[in-house]
Amino acid sequence: MASFYDEMAVMALEMITEFGQPVTISKAEPGEYDPEMGGEVPGAIIEQIAQGILLDFTGQEFQNNSLIKVGDKKLKIAAQGLEWVPDLLNKVVVQGRAWSIVPPLKEINPAGTPILYELQVRS
Question: What pLDDT digit, counting tens, does each position of 50-70 carry?
């Protein structure tokens, strides 16, 4: 039987899918050493599609957090169904625009069940 928090994760995904948009998250996988080449073979870019909502920061958030720069956005991503957890080295593409993830990266996970990731992104 699914726990309450598992159900909340599914509900978060459904709501963000309905009111949000697809977001591409990409990460670079490191290459491996190739003895025949005498160097490292280039790695691969791995992508996953998530469901997210891109929001502006409020004036109150700007006042309370000196790390927010003009043009930064808040991206909320549903945790349910992700292949991997987003991290600060990943890139995201929303509406055809590329963004970098900057600190802080928050995970909403009551009782250890990830429901939502809140990212600060900068283009």
Answer: 999 999 998 888 888 778 999
